[in-house]
Amino acid sequence: MKRTITDISTVTGVAALTVVALIAGCSTEPTDVPSADTTPPLTPTVALVDDERIRNAAVNEPGSWLAYGQTFEEQRFSGLTQINRETVTDLGLAWSKPLGERHRVETTPLVIDGVMYISDPWNVTYALDAVTGEEIWVFDPETDKEMVRYACCGGPMTRGVAVYQGRVYIATFDGRMVAVDAATGQKVWDVSTQHPSSVSPFTVTGAPRAGGGKVYIGQSSSEFGVRGYVSAYDAETGDLAWRFYLVPGDPSQPFEHPELEMAAETWDGEWWTLGAGGTVWSSIVYDPDLHTVYLGVGNGAPWPRDIRSPGRGDNLFLTAVVAVDPDTGRMKWYYQQVPGDNWDYSAAMQMTLADMEVDGTMRKVLLQAPKNGFFYVLGREDGELLRAHPYGRITWATHVDMETGRPVENTDVYYEENPQWIFPGAGGTHNWQPMSFDADQGVMYIPTHDTASFFGLPEEFAKTGIFKMREVGMTTGLPIGAYRDQLVAAAAPEPESRAYLKKFDPLSGETLWAIENEGNRPSGVLATAGGLIFQSDGQAGYISAYNTDNGETLWRTEVPGARFGPGPISYEIDGTQYIAITSGVDLDYEGEGKLFVFKLGGDMAMPLAPALLDMTIPEPPPLTGSANDLARGDQLYHAVCANCHGPLGQELQSGTRVADLRRMSPETHENYQTIVLGGSLEDLGMRSFANELNEEEVEAIRQFVISRANLAREEEAQ
Question: Which of 19, 196, 426, 513 has the smallest number of Cβ neighbours within 10 A?
Answer without folding.
Answer: 196
